């Protein structure tokens, strides 16, 4: 199970997502579903990898092209109510408490939207001998979709948990699921948390 960026900065008021003018309550609403899926994976003894989109405190891994986006009065690295936006070690960069990683679960910090960009994600997958990846997290059309596409190109089988992912824009989520699964699963497949848990328990 790959849980993408279930961080306070995206899910809670006062974080990076809210600073861009988004209604974060949509994202907060999936936390119990992601937690249910996570519990299923833990009970099944299957590997879980959590990712966090965040940057080094000196912002040396933040390209100008990324920093100069969004609302220019509050940018990545600027101080907010949960610390500096999207900076490692700040409260906002933490994974929400309900999904706190357990010891033994990898936590991958990534400076990009996709998890493969300038990280050791592929090594983590190979070390665990993983071929089939089930994705949850936020946001569907940005970090989740980018990572699924990168994984698909590298030969992994990818499945998106449709109710354990969310976007600030409902139409973007729907379009992403449609794009991923169209043309015989051109990027991968999609299924509900109930269906995935049913399969895990079978
Ligand atoms: C965004 C993400 N949306 N985790 N990041 O900036 O999807």
Index terms:
202 residues, 38% helix, 18% strand, single chain, binds dicarbonimidic diamide
Plain-language structure description:
Helices cover 38% and strands 18% of the residues. The chain is of the alpha/beta class. 38% of the residues are buried. The strands form two sheets. The chain has a six-stranded parallel beta sheet. Strands 3-4 form a two-stranded antiparallel ribbon. The longest helix has 16 residues, at 170-185. It contains nine helices and eight strands. The model has no long low-confidence stretch (mean pLDDT 97). Bound molecules: dicarbonimidic diamide (C5J). Dicarbonimidic diamide is lined by residues 5, 10, 53, 113, 138-139, 142-143.
Put the structure in a nutshell:
The chain has 202 residues and is an alpha/beta fold.
Averaged pLDDT: 97
Largest sheet: 6 strands, parallel
What overall geometry do the principal axes of the alpha carbons give? globular
Number of helices: 9
From the N-terminal CA to the C-terminal CA, the straight-line distance is: 17 Å
The number of distinct β-strands equals: 8
Strand order of the main beta sheet, please?
5-2-1-6-7-8
